[in-house]
Amino acid sequence: MITIAIANQKGGVGKTTTAINIATAMAATGWKTLLIDLDPQGNASTGLGIEAAARELTSYDLLLEEATLPECTLSTDIPGLDIVPATQDLSGAEVELVSVEDRTARLTKALAQHSRAYEVCFIDCPPSLGLLTLNALCAADTLLVPLQCEFFALEGLSQLLQTVERIQQGFNPNLGIVGVVLTMFDRRNRLTDQVADDVRDCLGGLVFENVIPRNVRLSEAPSHGMPALVYDHQCPGSRAYIGLARELIGRLPETRKAA
Ligand code: ATP
Ligand code: MG
Fold it and tell me: I need a surface site. Which of 91, 146, 195, 218 has the fewest CB within 10 A?
């Protein structure tokens, strides 16, 4: 199993939209896929149609070692895609874990015994660099960073990259960065164009060729409890995520590309 954390401490940049749709695209391509909702907002769970009442065991129980991965996992309407849902309770984990000794390794431990059940696991992180995101970065093989094309985009990124460096030096020396995806790209807006150019100048090949356009269908889909890829698989946003999934698969280590 390859584990991919989707993280950026900046809020509303498209982490969850990316997590839902890329996980769906990978599952549709035949990869046995798990999505872990690690955000107390529970947006990934909602966006995949998991009702609040169905979220009995969640990523909170996983981190607090109150339940195992199979116990916390629900299947979704998408064949080949399972989810560990989240509820507001998860915000408590951030506090409760502070006094625990192996507090950044909880997710790593929870995934360790079950790494053969899935081929790929995505982790949807909350908009902070707190203990939840640290758990994700410790458990991950690699990081996928959604970056919104706006003026301060690069500023936030340097803080994230510093955190990645710290994690590499301490807990998880093999943590990689599989790529940066530009989101909410608006061709008609000169500023987003300029930001996209700057980001590519600065990060080069780290930036995915596939760019996610600003597309209202992507923002409508979650209220119907389905990925945009199911809600309207022809819309520009869905097509962009299919292209991104293909590009992502191309960047994964050869041995993991069996599917
Ligand atoms: P948070 O930091 O709060 O977890 P996030 O980084 O997960 O946010 P999303 O929830 O994916 O970001 O997106 C923020 C909002 O923007 C949502 O309402 C979402 O539907 C919308 N959105 C995301 N991507 C696009 C897009 N490409 N085009 C239009 N709307 C988008
Ligand atoms: Mg989110």
Answer: 91
